[in-house]
Write a structure and sequence with these properties.
- The structure is a single chain.
- The protein has 131 residues and is α+β, with helices and mostly antiparallel strands.
- The chain has 6 helices and 5 strands.
- The chain has one domain: TATA-Binding Protein (2-Layer Sandwich), CATH 3.30.310.70.
- A 5-stranded antiparallel beta sheet has the order 1-5-4-3-2.
- A hairpin with a 2-residue loop joins strand 4 and strand 5.
- Helix 2 packs across helix 6.
- The chain is globular and about 40 Å long.
Amino acid sequence: MYMRLEDFAYIVNTQKSFDEAAVSVLSAVEKKGWMVFNVIGINERLAAKGFEQKPLKIIEICNGKHANHFLNKSRFVSLFMPCRINILEEDGKVKIASMRPATMSQFFPEVDREEAEAVEKDVIGIIDSAK
């Protein structure tokens, strides 16, 4: 049985341009007190190799308190880290998306679902304030 995209991803449309949405996400991450680890322009990196893609930016973010807590439960939780917020163009619309961190609890029994949902609440709050 396949998971539906909505089961593991939070996706919103924005009226902002691609670049405005990226700046807005970066600002929302800072306001929430999280750290930005990296900003990856996937389409730009692929263009350097001769491939053409529509705009796609991945913003890697982290909250040290949450990261430390979950890593103490299982080092393999790092497979879900850092959290990523993607800005992409799809069907002529700019979208902001992230995997739902609460899905961690489905893969790691030592991760309490309520604790993972607290991280998800923060990530959704960042996306909602950025849209």
